[in-house]
Design brief:
Length: about 240
């Protein structure tokens, strides 16, 4: 990005409230695979319906658990990237700032973001698949999947699979933030998954200036005021430096 477009600058300077939605692209720079990249995305190697649905877990709990265990290890070895760090700094700078993420990797928190609304859950939470409640497992176990210490049911990762509702509080927070934001940043998401993908459109309808940060066009591109083409880390670092 050579220079910040004037309208963006003026909307930013006068903004009372900034809201952000992130997706897998911001974590790609930390080495965490995205979902839909044709070459390197998770869905290029696995079919979503075989792994990211309640039916898949019912059919083959071991396969699904092992896939998520592999991803946990990958994320444990990853570090927050320049994009995560820039957003954590913006949060400290802007009094009314809200971050919603579709990512389940916890990298925003590790970068210093306080309480992002995790719309698709968190890879490191464990849930009892029968009771739906959070489970504390005593230690890492080789059982795949481990058993709930209370009822003996299978334990599943605390993420949101296709066909499941999003966590109500996180979604309500994200919707409220979109509705009151003056500037809305949508970063590193294909916008193909709903209802999270509807948030930038809702923000625009409510009057926000919507900016997309992504190296590629997406279905959201047509709805935004400004597309900044490039990597999240580079663009956010530039914005952090250039904007008050
Ligand atoms: C970079 C970059 C760099 C790369 N810098 N950028 C309306 C219409 C049609 C269908 C539906 C609808 N409403 C609901 C549905 C059904 C379904 C859905 O959306 N299906 C679509 C596939 C069509 N939605 C659901 O089922 C949701 N639940 C629901 O609606 O429940 C209703 C209900 C109500 C009451 C009772 C019961 C039910 C749940 C959706 C859950 C999604 N879960 C997943 C898996 C999470 C667990 C896991 O991690 O395994 O969430 S799917 C996957 O996609 C994951 C992601 O969070 C999500 C979004 O992906 P994201 O982040 O956009 O990644 P990519 O890979 O798609 O894109 C990466 C982008 O980054 C690209 O654009 C790159 O260009 C870019 N990029 N490098 C910046 N350096």
């Amino acid at each position: 990005m050579d220079r910040i477009p004037e309208e963006f600058r003026s909307r930013w300077v006068s903004a009372g409230s900034v809201a952000v939605l992130t997706g897998a692209g911001i974590s790609a720079e930390s080495g965490v695979p995205t979902f839909r990249d044709a070459q390197t995305g998770l869905w290029a190697r696995w079919r979503p319906e075989d792994l990211a649905t309640p039916q898949a877990f019912q059919r083959n709990p071991r396969l699904v658990w092992d896939w998520y265990r592999w991803r946990r290890e990958l994320v444990r070895d990853a570090e927050p990237g320049a994009g995560h760090l820039a957003l954590a700094q913006l949060e400290r700078r802007i009094p009314r700032f809200h971050l919603a993420t579709q990512n389940v990797d916890g990298l925003h928190q590790r970068a210093g973001s306080k309480e992002p609304a995790e719309l698709h859950g968190n890879l490191f939470r464990d849930l009892c698949a029968y009771e739906g409640t959070e489970v504390e497992l005593p230690e890492e176990t080789d059982e795949a999947p481990p058993r709930c210490p209370r009822c003996g049911g299978p334990v599943r990762p605390g993420v949101v699979w296709f066909g499941e509702p999003l966590p109500r509080r996180a979604m309500q927070e994200a919707e409220s933030a979109a509705a009151v934001s003056d500037v809305y940043l949508v970063i590193g998401t294909s916008g193909m998954v709903h209802p999270a993908g509807d948030l930038p459109v809702a923000a625009r309808r409510a009057g926000a200036f919507v900016v997309e940060i992504n190296p590629e066009p997406t279905p959201i591109t047509d709805f935004v005021h400004l597309s900044l083409r490039g990597r999240a880390g580079n663009i956010l670092a530039t914005l952090l430096e250039a904007l008050p």
